[in-house]
Amino acid sequence: MQTNLFNIVLLSFILTLGYNNLYSQDLPKKPRAIPIIKQADTVPKTTIKDKSVITKVSDTLKKRDTIKTQKPFLDGIVKYKANKYAKIDQKKKLITLYDQAELYYQDIELKSGIIVLNYEKNEVYAGRIKDSTGKFTQYPNFKQGENVIEPDSIRFNFKSKKALIWNSRTEQGEFKVKASITKKENDSVYFLKGARFTTSTNVDNPEYYFQTSKVKFIPGKKVITGMTHMVIANVPTPIAFPFAYFPMSKETNVSGVILPSYNDSNTRGFSLQNGGYYFALSDNYDLTAIGDYYTNGSYGLRFESAYAKRYQFRGNFNFRYENLISSERGYPDYSKQKIYNIQWSHSRDTKANPNSSFSASVNLGSSKYFNQSINQSNIGSRLNNTLSSSVSYSKTFNSVPEVRMSLTATHSQNTQTETIDMTLPTLQLSVDRIYPFAGKNDTKKGFIKNINLQYNLNGKNSFTTTDSLFFKPQMFDNAKIGAQHSIPLSTNFKLFKYFSASTSANYEEVWYAKTIKKSYDTDQSAVVSELQNGFDAYRTYSFSSSLGTTIYGTFNFGEDKKIKSLRHVMRPSLSYSYTPSFEKYYDTYATDATGTTAQYSRFEDGIYGAPGLTKSSNLGFSLSNTFEAKVTDRDSTKTEAKKIMLLNNLNLSTSYDLNADGVTSLAWSPVRVSGGTQLFKDKMIVNFGTTLDPYAIDNSGNRINTFNIDNGGSLFRMTSANMTINYSLSSKDSDKNDKEKDSQTQRNGGREDDLFGSASDLGNNKKSLFDGSEEKGEDVVSEFFKSKIPWDMTFAYSLTYSNTNREKTFSGNSLMISANTDLTPKWKIGISTGYDFVQKGVTYTQLRLERDLSSWRMSVNWTPFGTNANWNFFIGIKSGILSDIKWDKNSTTTTR
């Protein structure tokens, strides 16, 4: 009986477990009541209690079935590894990684000395570890997306994406950020406590930083802080802000305010300079608007725009306007004037359209702009006397023969006389050469087959005006309009195998819309010129020919000599030109009341001039020479001799007029001799020239029909001579200086070097003497600064001799020097000066000094004396994002 009872209970328990598993997977519909079946009294009463237990178990299982299945603790795959060990504690639900530990989950990368992952709380902790010397190493590196943080330790929750970071270090654009405690609220917002911001390369020990206690940081967008103060060399400064806003946009083209700099002037009062706004209009163009204001009413405006489209075009446009007031109204030195300058540069990519092009180089404005501007100290532009511009469009027509057309507008301005010459426009049209006696595939050899002709058209609308009439209707009052047609016919051929001969004839026709008529006005008792409106034209023709050859001469001294040989190349040329007299286009007019007459041409005031009155028959001669030497190379491993250029060129030329009458014209023209060479590995450039006149002069200095040798003199009378020497030295291995050239000075026709000092654009003091080295962020000095000191030096010597009227004087004799050197890796100094031996005085002198302060830059430019005396001091942060943190002080030049 006991055995049966045990078996019955065991069987019931097993069936109950099976019943439970079945219901846990699929709950059936609620069954109807089970009828009670009477059984025999073979089972004891304790089975009722068992039945009640089974019923209770079933009810409990039904309640458990309503509980949802738990999801995994992470939403992705976790990858991890470590150098020493990776330990899993299932009881505490921890994964511990030690030594060079790495963990990767979704967009999160975590590297550290130790990483502890609690997969029950969905948190990870990372920290540094100590090495064998007890020094902390393997600092955490936390990367999420593009944001990287390098703290001492970090605690991060995978579910909420929140984190606590201790002593974090991160880079956002040009900023380096360090904070004692950082709270990551979500993927885009951080809160920092005890933070510092700097652009220094060393975030732990920067030269300067901005210290703040509370920060809201949105990566890639902005930083908003509470009370912020500036610290320099770990010394707090009184510079503080109640709050601060730092833009952190990763976009390179962002609009923003340009803060002005404070200055003062003795003649214009206090000022705010170079303040404005930068407009990032699109990826293809921008606009910068800058202004200056002085308390005496002076102001300046500048608009600068750069534009570009890939494979299409690029350019920039600058407009500057200044209203200058000196002193106060009522004082004797009071003055008021308006000056402006317009600059435009444009170029089109050849890929845009190979058959047409458009370019512009414009520099026009007030003649005194660069002398009186309150924001320019450009000596190269100030000393230059000419401003010029050109805007041109050209197109090629793919016809047979090919036709080329161009439209050009030009401008030339003399800043001394304030005279402006312009052409609006110039039309040029040319038809390619036509060979009428040569077939399409024939070789063009011989006199006949080489005969070719062209057609050229040149049309102009030209006028001359002044500064005061520029941009006014009166500037067009004296406009001259004309067109010139020419048809050149030429051929070339070999003569006697060694001579090259060419001959040409040219037909020319000129059209004018206006001519003049001269007459004597008895009422005014003077000759008057009257404009005649209407079409008129004249036609001319001329002939020319030339004969030339090349002669080679070599002088050998022997292979065992240091100078092995000399080579002399001569290129003599003989030319002849003939132009007949076109007297038919000349009329006569009375010069006074007595009836004395003179000849004139009604075309003489035209844009292309008038046809020649006298017949011209000139015989010309020219000779060019070059001299080379072969010398033994100093390098004994080289077997070939070294070539050295002794004279790049030595030229002489003169002509003889076969129709000269010896009174109004002399037969021989002066002999012009010129030459040049390059020495010392092309570092020294020497150019020279002289003019030799075979005729003597009278007591009035006029040339007479008597040879100078027959007048008791030498064969030739030297009337002028000049020589220039430019010599550049540098500690660099390269033969040429790689110094940055000032485009503004070059645009105005100035020198490329800094013999006249470096230009100072007071609106942009970011230009450095360190030639971009400050952008490298390098400050490595392996040894004491001793042997290799970078330096460069430029010499320019100019000598001019005049003897036109037996004065025998040196009209020009000056030496100019420019030198730059690095006193230390962080100090650079430069000087530009010279001496005029004729005026016996020092030429323009400028002193330059610059200090590289790692994250900062300090520079001083000083012109101590002269009409252009001025000085400029600048200190500021190099970083473009903090370019407005600066101190800029300058004087006003004394030029008026």
Describe this structure in words.
- The model is unreliable at 5-67, 734-740 and 772-786 (pLDDT under 50).
- This protein has a 30-stranded antiparallel sheet that branches. The protein has a 16-stranded antiparallel sheet that branches. It has a two-stranded antiparallel sheet with strand order 6-7.
- The protein has six helices and 54 strands.
- Helices cover 7% and strands 54% of the residues.
- It is mainly beta and 896 residues long.
In the CATH hierarchy, the architecture of the domain at 78-247 is Sandwich
Mean pLDDT: 82
Strand content: over 45%
**How does the overall form come out from the CA principal axes?**
elongated
Helix content: under 10%
N/C terminus separation: 134 Å
**Number of DSSP strand runs:** 54
The CATH H-level homologous superfamily of the domain at 78-247: Lipopolysaccharide (LPS) transport protein A like domain
In the CATH hierarchy, what is the class of the domain at 78-247?
A: Mainly Beta
Low-confidence stretches: 5-67, 734-740, 772-786
Under CATH, the topology of the domain at 78-247 can be stated as lipopolysaccharide transport protein A fold
Oligomeric state as shown:
single chain
Structural class: mainly beta
For this entry, give a set of tags.
6 helices; 896 residues; lipopolysaccharide transport protein A fold; 7% helix; mainly beta; 16-stranded antiparallel beta sheet
Task: Give a quick summary of the entry.
The protein contains six helices and 54 strands. It has 896 residues and is mainly beta. The chain has a 30-stranded antiparallel beta sheet that branches.
